[in-house]
Amino acid sequence: MVGRKFSVSKANAQIDQVIIDAATGNALTGHTGATSTALPAAQQVAVDFGATASIGLTVEKLIEMKRLFQVNNVMRLGILENIVVRRNGELIEVVAGRQRVKWARVANMRLAKKGEPRFEFPA
After folding, report:
1. Backbone angles phi and psi of 31, in degrees to 5
2. What is the distance of C-alpha 76 from the center of its chain?
3. Phi and psi angles of residue 35, each rounded to the nearest 5 degrees, phi first
4. How far from chain centre, in Å, is Cα 43?
5. Top-level CATH class of 56-123?
6. What are the b/e assignments for 99-112, b being 16+ CB within 10 Å?
7. Where are the domains of the chain?
8. What is the pLDDT along the chain (123 residues), one digit of tens a residue?
9. Which residues face 41 on adjacent strands?
10. CA atoms within 13 A on the CB side of 43
11. Beta-carbon neighbour count of residue 97 at 10 Å?
């Protein structure tokens, strides 16, 4: 049993290293894993984001990374979960999915710049 735990732990460490290598350099992609693919600049967070100098990983950088990942997911997959809104007189309120609305709006701005069709929210 100890040997099995060690092999699972070692495999997880190898997977972690692949993710770290891809996030900090070029990812090896393709069927054989031989194609070197750089992370696009639009998916990178600057080392001095939220600060005047490089100070390592910060909460602001983590929040920006999450925003980038979510916007890219919306652009690639669309809106997969419901957005619930309600009408309160003349005011329309987002009850559930406020973050998805924000991500979709950013994705729509990017798509508009490219001249591509934007996501529509069902009424």
Report:
1. -65, -35
2. 10
3. -90, 120
4. 8
5. alpha beta
6. ebeebbebbbeebe
7. 1-39, 56-123
8. 455 555 677 777 777 777 776 666 677 778 887 888 777 777 777 777 877 777 777 888 888 888 888 887 777 777 766 777 777 788 777 777 777 777 788 888 888 888 888 777 654
9. none
10. 15
11. 17
